Each structure stands twice: as C-alpha cells, then as structure tokens.
C-alpha cells in the first residue's frame, strides 16, 4: 500500500479544514478584529450618570465616556464617585469648564451672557478647556482624554478654536450624525448620534447598521431615566446594553479615548505607507 507523503498530507489538511477553522486565520480587522466599534458617551456630568448609567454599564462590564463640565455642582459634590468610575475604566472626558455655547445662533435663548461662546476670545475658550483638563487629571490622574464641543459649537468668529487644543487631546467629538469607516473619521470632529426619546429598537438598529458597514458608531446621551431635558428611557438604554453585551464578540465597545487612539494609529500608519 502506498501512503501519502508528508507534503501531500499537509495539502490535504488545508483543503479539508472546516470553514470555521480557516476563518480563524483571517487577517485582523481594524476594530480589534471585530465588525465595528461603538462608543457610549454621556454629556454634562449629571447625577443620573452616577445613579443610573455607571451602575448599568458596570453590571454588564461595559465602559463609556463621561464628558464632564468642570463647574458642574455634581462634579464637586460627588468627586469620589467620579474617581471610582475612572478607576473602573470609564473615561472622564472634557466638556469645558463652563459649557459655553454660541448664543448668537437660533434657538439659543438658554445661553447666558456669561457663557456665550460668541462673546469669548479664542484664548479664553482655550484656557478654560485647559483648566478643566487640570481638574480632570486631579480626579483620575490621566493625561490622555478626549474633548466634546459644548452644543457642538466649534467656531468663535469663524475660527476653529480646537486647532489650538489638538496637542491637549487625542480627539474631539462633535454632534453631526453619521457612521464612518476608520479611514474617514475626522479626529477633530467625530460624528455622533444625539439620542432624545428614541426607542431601544432604534438604538439597536443603529448598532446593526454599524455592524453591516464596519463603521464607528458614537452615541451621545444626556439624561438616562431623567435628569435632563434631552432624555432616553432606562428601558431603551438597558435594551441597547443587553444587545452590545450579547454581541461583544462582534462589537468593540470602548471609551472614546481608546477608540480614537486606535484610529489615530491606523490613520498615521496609512499616511506613512506602512
């Protein structure tokens, strides 16, 4: 009887390997070898972040980004809780010291004269953001973090003030909705979906769209279960977290700073031809 040679055996094993076995050898994808990336962000440092959101995230071992306003009374009153959140892997992002918004725009009657970005100088805006970074570092001891534009406002007198802040941050989150592949993400103005009253089915469907397109999806929450005029029900938020946890093999869920660092490294390698 003629037995196959070792070379022939090797070829036979490769040809008869199961599809699942061959799939395990595929090249890693851009999102930590997962279908897409999802970032959960929560603005304004409100009590519901500490009372509802962080316990919900911790219960399913997911991590988010909390954009803190330095002057928020909830930061001062509950500083040890924010520190513990950072220790558990949540990002404390920078949402400016005073949360200034452009009061010259339509629908901005809520903007006070003291916090009107249109009356700021560039140096004042930059200085207040940097002061907030000092406060955040005192809370979590970290130097790498991301920024979120208050009200999504990026300009003062036609000048993009974040240009001076790029060395201080890994990236900045904006408020324009959209899914983006890694190569198209603008680290100075990352897209996000502002959530206000949508259902859990809507939130999950956004994730499914990101999975199909291999894109980055950023959620922008304010109130969760109350505490803010922009709000999502606890049940809808819980449905989203359950879906993300159930599909964590396929979805990379991480704080904005970690995802932005991955994007920055990938874009840098691409631009250098590596």
TrEMBL record:
It comes from Hymenobacter glacieicola. Residues 1-23 form the signal peptide. It comes from the Bacteria. Pfam families: Polysacc_deac_1 (PF01522). This is Chitooligosaccharide deacetylase. Keywords: Signal. Residues 36-254 form the NodB homology domain. SUPFAM superfamilies: Glycoside hydrolase/deacetylase (SSF88713).
